[in-house]
Amino acid sequence: MGIENNLRIIMAKQRIDNVSELISITGLSRNALNKLWHNENMDSVKLGTLLTICDKLNINLSELIEYKPKA
CA-to-CA distance for 70 and 32, rounded, in angstroms? Predict the structure, then answer.
């Protein structure tokens, strides 16, 4: 398990259609957002990236990411 994110769900709720639109809203790089979009290498995503998304989308960090302990 590990760290998972809810970026796609949040984007759908806020009617953000694609990563390009999210780039425009957040000012973050496509590379940083693609990691989240594909839920890959979550261990290497910078806290600053997550906090920027939270600030720009007006959400809590706990809404964006979730830690599930490995069994």
Answer: 25
